[in-house]
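Late entry, heme C complex.
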Amino acid sequence: MIVIAALGAGFVAYAWRSPIAAIAQPEPASFKAGEVERGAQLAAIGDCNTCHTAENGKLFAGGRAFVTPFGTIYSTNITPDAETGIGNWSLAAFQRAMREGVDREGNYLYPAFPYDHFTLTRDDDIGALYAFLMTREPARQEASANELVFPLNHRVLLAGWKLLFVSPGPYQAQPDRDELWNRGAYLAEGLGHCGACHTPRNAFGAEDSGRRYAGADIDGWHAYRLDSTADAHVPWSEDAIYAYLRSGWHGDHGVARGPMAPVVENLASVPDDDVRAIAHYIAGIMGVPKLQPPSAPQAPAVAMNQSGARPQSAGSQTLPPIAPDAATASDLGARLYAASCAACHEAGRAVPIGAINLALSSSITGASPDNLLRILLTGIPAKGDGQRNPIMPGFANTMSDPQILALATYLRGRFGGQRPGWDDLPATLSQVRTDMNPKAGRQASAARP
Ligand code: HEC
Ligand code: HEC
Ligand code: HEC
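Prediction complete; structure with ligand written out below:
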């Protein structure tokens, strides 16, 4: 008993963090030239807007819900409102939050805030982020109370989580790697927090360090593996990753949708150099993919990619039709594909004007059917921004469940490159249907405490 009490007291003493005094909101003139602009770019790389803005809510005012296996956590108001935001936080308080996951008053923050990545951020970049946030429009909005299961509603426990799962930053450059790689590692592992979605999590909701970038589920989507066994049929090249991150699509790989869509939307405002560095680093993680020998339909695409074809001209354009026999096949899935999909997906026009040959899409070769079913049911809506964006109709109302299951089974068998069928198809389909019904649908979720 005494030992436990002593250990408990020791832990509380270890975990205690003092409050940092409130300050008056700093004057915009107090920031160095260029700091606010650089902060805007860093905030885009860090997706601060995506997580800290509720649907139809004020920018950065918080309130987005994260449904986790441990309960619901709400993002907070990070506008410079003095009472409900971080207007009275000093740079030191902001820096402690980013590096240590502790708020101004000394409370531990839940890692739904990916400070396990943000800790790598250098002091000068934290200063730029601070300058950017402190010069935003203040918005008055109280943070919603979290709904977490006991004992996780006690923030002090997060001190233990942090001890186990967070390696404190800032980033230390690896001397045996060149500058571009180090810059990419700094951004991708740090503010870019790519692993937060692409690395599977353990029972404590922390990223599994033994399975980095092995692919994970997020908000009902699958964030594909980005390691050396990447899901794509055509190996990703550094240029392809760059183009995909830069513009949201690539002729050999299709478009970024679901939770990846805001990531690339944000990256659009980030300088080329930064995106290039991230692509360089991720290409290194993918290494040379261990591809299965390409079967006949994929061969031309693989060859084309290796010949260094430009992204714009690659893709379905020069591929031969994949399933000339599909129209006559008795199989229900094959008939549906020929009637409803092939006209666009085998038309020989590459994205963004046409659609990729489905043999190239990771949604068919990936570990789970989530992304295929979501895109099949909802389609790709027009963005309405005046740009020429890919558009696909949704089939939620025109196809029955048995039809969708038959089609998905057919696509996996035909274009999955000998991968085994998905055994969770029916369950995934009913989950996707539920999510599409706004009343029953779940909100944004993340598998972390
Ligand atoms: C994946 C979602 C996510 C992203 C991305 C994210 N945040 Fe957060 N952030 C959260 C959540 C959730 C909380 C609340 C955590 C809690 O209550 O313990 C939070 C809390 C914070 C806090 C503490 C505020 C307070 O009042 O206690 C700060 C500061 C913060 N975030 C800054 C940022 C910045 C700067 C960025 C971008 C570089 C960012 N966040 C990106 C989810 C996110
Ligand atoms: C909020 C979660 C999230 C974050 C953060 C995120 N991704 Fe993704 N990513 C996804 C999802 C989900 C997909 C699948 C999208 C789809 O099906 O269109 C994806 C797809 C991709 C793909 C395409 C893979 C393929 O085989 O088609 C690449 C490449 C990628 N992400 C790279 C990155 C990089 C680099 C970062 C960090 C800068 C990053 N992602 C950050 C969720 C995320
Ligand atoms: C009117 C044209 C059109 C029709 C019909 C159509 N699609 Fe699409 N589809 C597109 C476009 C455009 C895209 C986005 C560009 C891309 O990713 O190829 C797309 C994307 C996709 C993707 C994502 C590919 C990726 O990884 O980026 C899948 C999967 C898909 N469609 C499946 C289907 C299936 C299955 C059918 C038939 C039931 C179908 N589509 C019918 C136009 C169409």
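The chain has a mean pLDDT of 87. Will revisit in the morning.
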